[in-house]
Specification:
The chain is of the alpha/beta class and 415 residues long. The chain folds into three domains: 222 residues, Isopropylmalate Dehydrogenase, CATH 3.40.718; 131 residues, Isopropylmalate Dehydrogenase, CATH 3.40.718.10; 34 residues, no CATH class. The chain has 13 helices and 18 strands. The strands form four sheets. The chain has a twelve-stranded mixed β-sheet, with helices on both faces. A two-stranded antiparallel sheet has the order 1-2. Strands 8-9 form a two-stranded antiparallel ribbon. The relative contact order is 0.16. The site of magnesium ion has 3 residues, from helix 9.
Length: 415
């Protein structure tokens, strides 16, 4: 990164580091950010002002983030002048400065580049995608009791069918996989072998355990009630089923869990329940009985679907933050659950709450809790005052619709 001429490191500012398993955060940390594609720039402009204002108000100038712009996606193509989607310098900056934040990046469907978002998580081994889902009073919701939803999704972030190991139908590679499966492994269940594409779903013990460990540790540290392992292990026995079994084993081995009524559910000594639910059932349970669920640990693709579904219950992906974290190295990239929402790009209308709340998570992760609390205070008051962006305004009686930038201003005023 030091040699990347496109990346201008701020003159002042210091690196965040990890020492003895704890983050060491200076008062003026350098934090890399990617603005993002589509609505990313609209959202980032509002978000950065809110985060800076919260830090300024909380610490009166004693602390300040030194932002370092790095590039990915369409902006990287512009800045680098060629088709470079995820420059080495960007990955290196996130590696070197430990904590970063990003806007959404476009991934084409069917062909073209593979996801830059996924690539970044894989490159930095950010194995836990952490997505809290909580209700802010006044947000319009399609359910009767959105306030019953208070969950934190821990989604495995580096494996599964999501890793992108696929072979296109009709290629020599797909033919090779077909031949291996049918001729060497004796597989007879491929319905249309000649025209099939193939995808691979790697799910490992190490990968599952480190994610489930992070989820249980989070539950312990935050006084939560339960951890639910969500899987489709009845059908995918050796991948999703193993995820469940490895989870229960880990809870017993590392956290002292004991079986409840003959198992497989178990409890930790402090009463936290470890349980499991099959994924399709879980999707109806979260609508009917959301209070039965708290921390959720699941595989990559399930976690992707669940994130948007649960976000809808508390008002949608306009207010759905997240973090990609490696709890061992401390590396983290905070990002919203939503994508680029391209039809709203450049219109200054989109809801910036998801990135603002991802920034709030980042401040809390850094130990800057006073600033994080101010972000929540400002956002909460702005929503209660019914001054909201289009997505909330369309279903909120008596609301005044404001622009993305105005919404940011109001959050700052309400801190
Ligand atoms: N981590 C990442 O960077 C992610 C990237 N993507 C990428 O984003 C692109 C677009 O994906 P798409 O499937 O359309 O999903 P998006 O999440 O971009 O948008 C889907 C819909 O969700 C609503 N929405 C999204 N963001 C907001 C927001 N900030 N405020 C209010 N409403 C919002 C809008 O609904 P409405 O139309 O009702 O207003 C929008 O049309 C794809 O290339 C995809 O791969 C997708 C997810 C994550
Ligand atoms: O990378 C992408 O384009 C989509 C990723 C996504 O939907 C997610 O991580 O929630
Ligand atoms: Mg998604």
């Amino acid at each position: 990164m030091a040699t990347d001429p496109h990346i201008q490191v701020p003159q002042s500012g210091e690196k965040i580091s990890m020492q003895g398993g704890k983050l060491n955060v200076p008062n003026n940390p350098i934090i890399p950010f990617v603005e993002g594609d589509g609505t990313g720039p609209d959202i980032w402009r509002a978000s950065v002002r809110v985060l800076d204002a919260a830090v300024e108000k909380a610490y009166g100038g004693d602390r300040k983030i030194e932002w370092l712009e790095v590039y990915a996606g369409e902006k990287a193509n512009e800045v680098y002048g060629e088709a470079i989607w995820l420059p080495e310098g960007t990955v290196e900056a996130f590696r070197e400065y430990l904590v970063g934040i990003k806007g959404p990046l476009t991934t084409p469907v069917g062909g073209g580049i593979r996801s830059i978002n996924v690539a970044l998580r894989q490159e930095l081994d950010l194995y836990a995608c952490v997505r809290p889902v909580v209700y802010f009073d006044g947000v319009p919701s399609p359910v009767r009791h959105p306030e019953y939803v208070d969950m934190v999704i821990f989604r495995e972030n580096t494996e599964d069918i999501y890793a992108g190991i696929e072979y296109k139908a009709g290629t020599p590679e797909a033919e090779k996989v077909r031949a291996f499966l049918q001729d060497e492994m004796g597989v007879t269940k491929i319905r249309f072998p000649e025209s099939s594409a193939f995808g691979v779903k790697p799910v490992s013990k190490e990968g599952s355990e480190r994610l489930i460990r992070a989820a249980i540790q989070y539950a312990v540290d935050n006084g939560r009630k339960s951890v639910t392992l969500v899987h489709k292990g009845n059908i995918m026995k050796f991948t999703e089923g193993a995820f469940r079994d490895w989870g229960y084993d880990l809870a017993k081995r590392e956290f002292g869990a004991t079986e409840l009524d003959g198992g497989p559910w178990c409890t930790l000594p402090n009463g936290i329940v470890i349980k499991d639910v099959i994924a399709d059932n879980f999707l109806q349970q979260i609508l009917l009985r959301p209070r039965d669920y708290d921390v959720v640990a699941t595989l990559n693709l399930n976690g992707d679907y669940l994130s948007d579904a649960l976000a809808a219950q508390v008002g949608g992906i306009g207010i759905a933050p997240g973090a990609n974290i490696n709890y061992v190295t401390g590396h983290s990239v905070f990002e919203a659950t939503h994508g680029t929402a391209p039809k709203y790009a450049g219109k200054d209308v989109i809801n910036p709450s998801s990135v603002i709340l991802s920034g709030e998570m980042m401040l809390r992760y850094m130990g800057w809790t006073e600033a994080a609390d101010l972000v929540l205070k400002g956002l909460d008051a702005t929503i209660r005052n019914k001054t909201v962006t289009y997505d909330f305004a369309r279903d909120m009686e008596g609301a005044k619709q404001v622009k993305t930038s105005e919404f940011g201003d109001l959050i700052i005023a309400n801190m």
